[in-house]
Input
Amino acid sequence: MAREFIINSISQAHQSMGLPAPKHPLVTVVQTRDFNTQKDFNGVKIINNLYQITLKQLGCGNLFYGKNSYDYEEGTLVFTSPGQVTMFEGEMPTEDESKAGWILAFHPDLIRKSNLADKMSQYSFFNYEVNEALHLSAEELKTIEGLLDKIVIEYSQNLDKHSQNLIISNIELLLDYCTRFYDRQFYTRSNLNLDYVSKFEKLLKRYYEKEDVLEMGMPNVKYLASQLNFSSSYLSDLLKKETGKTAQEHIHLFVIEKAKNQLLSSKNSISQIAYSLGFQYPQHFSNLFKSKTGLSPSEYRNLN
Output
């Protein structure tokens, strides 16, 4: 069984990296060149209960960042949210690989009473896998690190009633820029992404042709994403950028079209059709069909 190491606070994070006590209890920016850890994390399951944004150079142990030939090379950002589990395997990064890296980490309590807390779910890249990282240009990296400097300045001076709001505002602005840069990355990968859209559609069609539905039920986003080596969040964002619809919306539309064909071309009961499409309960099928078409399955059949 793999060893576990749980990080619950900024202070604990600093201790694990062999760093002095943090200047702020809820947020920190650390340079990877300053790490002086004596802990061996190779093969250790790390459960991090902080939000973390990490700048890395390409190539770090056995981690793979999914870089393509048209991606920028100035830096790679990896995002993790509280409760995510990571494990490092392989050789530790060399000095050249880690010298330009940094970590921005903040505790959920920092933003708990702010508008940013409600907005965090919009930053879906916190649920991306490592190979779905953000690759930055020199100008983009300059923008991010400019905001990082402002955060450090705020928590390094005497704290006043404005400090927390300014720190949170700069974190929010940094995340908004990351959203913009991810949109740019999706755009520059558009030709490749269209291939993935086609693969997704073929995968969905094959799922029903092979009658996987009888054994596994209606396909879900997690399963289809895993078949394409994506996280659920990244696949949905990719499809949304290319087609205007999320992965779940694509699944629903596909199922509704199959349902329409069966309703008009067979005499099977509504329940039989529901089960053949992977629904455990016919009522769930009827509710979905009506929400998408405005008609119940029976009304649609009788109308045509």
Remarks:
- Residues 14 and 21 are 6 Å apart (CA to CA).
- Residues 163-188 form the longest helix (26 residues).
- The longest strand covers residues 51-56.
- The chain has two domains: 4-188, 191-303.
